[in-house]
Amino acid sequence: MRFLHTADWQLGMTRHFLAGDAQPRYSAARRDAVAGLGALAAQTGAEFVVVAGDVFDDNQLAPEVVSQSLEAMRTIGIPVYLLPGNHDPLNAASVYTSALFTAERPDNVVVLGTAGAHQVRPGVEIVAAPWPSKRPTCDLAAAAVQGLLADGTTRILLAHGGVDVLDPDPTNPALIRLAALEDALDRGVIHYVALGDKHSCTQVGAGGRIWYSGSPEVTNYDDIEPDPGYVLAVDIDETSGAVSVESHRVGRWRFVTLHRQLDTGRDVADLDINLDQLPDKERTVVQLALTGTLSVTDRAALDACLDRYSRLFAWAGTWNRHTDLAVVPADGEFIDLGLGGFAADAVEELIAAARAGDTDGADDAHAALALLLRLVDRGAA
């Protein structure tokens, strides 16, 4: 038996830093990743698709998001089993029970709204652990497998949430206990655990039968989410119970974090080269953590660089919390401007203010000196 394991589609997700047409393109890419599962299923011979929670980014979505998402699921063409997660729990306001979802749900889409076993076909079951609210008070995965027997049925546990060995908050009552999963696997009660919630493709434990698929399209920067953009093709031998897992990259967007120390014009030029060499700029988001001390001339070059790439990338800018750039006028930096009298005195005052660094007027002085350099470059001074 072969199926596709995916999770955390979070359809309807927005990112505040995406402006202009970048947000609609990003939203379309998330839907395209879903619709593309049909081709991947045909390529791999998958019988069905399981989605381990957070199909939608929220229960309150614009009608067009719901309709377009359901149409993307329809195009997959094989059964698609959806598990409510923490973003879209099966509570009173659930998207899954809305009139629109109910009316437009394709025949190949099944919502696993009750905990426990659901038959896929004779001899194969999905054991579902849906979220009934945003704050469960127990290990939903352990509760879902409770009472099941090793009776020869091949079972996939579909669950959502953090696993205790990976989660930094051991007091969370909803944590999935790895020991309980491994015990159920060892007893033959279940044969594979398909997890959602962690957006990076991750194997849990050492047995190769517990996986987070990660989100099929990136949702966060690579320092937080190092390995997104995958769907897992899972094979289970229905006779022996042996499992093999193969990852398939489907994501097309990248959220990149670059840390750079900038102290010279050469450093700024190297950053420019690094940004220039990044491919697929229209589908790439770049946050820059910049530290160092630059002259006014080099800071002006950096500003010109960032301005250019802000127009080429889906988004590019500084990560404010991790950016600390000082601007100190270099000795002799303004000697050759050909200024005299009052203008020369004003420049000296600006240089002194800029070098003070910790005064309220330092930033204004930096900006004024940079403007002066730009005007001189254009022959206007």
From TrEMBL:
Coiled coil: none
The keyword Nuclease is assigned to this record: yes
UniProt KW keywords: Exonuclease, Hydrolase, Nuclease
Stored Pfam families: Metallophos
GO molecular function, one term: exonuclease activity
Gene3D superfamilies, per database record: 3.60.21.10
Highest taxon of source: Bacteria
Residues annotated as domain Calcineurin-like phosphoesterase: 1-163
Keyword flag Nuclease: yes
Family: Belongs to the SbcD family.
Protein name (Swiss-Prot/TrEMBL): Nuclease SbcCD subunit D
Record lineage: Bacteria, Bacillati, Actinomycetota, Actinomycetes, Mycobacteriales
